[in-house]
Amino acid sequence: MASPIPLRIDIAPPRDRRARALTDLRISVIDRCNFRCPYCMPEDAYPRDHEFLGKAQRLRFEEIERIVRVFAGLGVSRLRLTGGEPLLRRELPQLVARLAAIDGIDELAMTTNGSLLPALAPGLREAGLGRITLSLDALDADIYRRLSGGRGDVAEALAAIDAACAAGFGPLKINCVVMRGINDEEVDKLAAHFRGSGHVLRFIEYMDVGTCNGWNDDLVVPSAQLRARIARRWPLVPLPRGRGSEVAERWRYADGGGEIGFISSVSAPFCGDCTRARLSADGRLYTCLFARQGHDLRGPLRAGASDAELAAIIAGAWSARDDRYSEMRNRVSAMPRERIEMYEIGG
Prior knowledge:
11 helices, 28% helix
């Protein structure tokens, strides 16, 4: 790989209209997924013949690298690769190696359903990927398969966790989206399974991301209920937040069984601490998970924009940001009717 051209921008790290810094970037490397989870990409909305982005529409690796260098120059230090399912992007370790070498990037992580992980974990680790978060919504084989749209095998997901550890990733974060009457009875099983494993299980409230998942707040199980339920069996002790923008409330088992987390976007919004931007696979910048539209970076990039011009677009979008959808969710008049779908910009 050729040595990168030195970055030439002279723009101070931006803050938005609520004084929130820009420190985290989530990069959707592909909009396709091999699962059809109902809270993200339900089968009825995205059948097997659905037309996703073509190769020419997606950002190339060198384009992603260049955009990330600009983001790093504006203060971003943490990256997360998402999808769709990021492991469907061919030669992903090459991108990881490019991003891991960027000055200023301190953390490089990935969220995956794990189905393709066993074969790719060693190469990703060697390329410089630091951490993996794996989605696991149930231990019951039938429930897991149903929640993957009939495409997932829980045994393969558990094998993926072992493969990641064997490749040197160490403890993983395990994410479970909880939906009342669908997989909420799996909570205790998951907690029991991962206690003492070193992995950090995190329960996520079902969110109204996008417009196709049929979200209904009756399906939301508040984190406080889950936490109280778990604590009745295994007492919990609160842990301090790792950093101000961390989304999960952290707890540990009082008996030394490890850590557990709760992400409560619906019942306890954390918009005030949000420092995350999102880059879609087709090169649009989104300043909120619940945004309606993004800011085009691919167009200017391919038209020959300089680093300074790209930085100005990013800083301008962030400086104008006033997003706080989760805090406004219950104010019906403030809720946008159309929102970007989760699979387009990651979770």
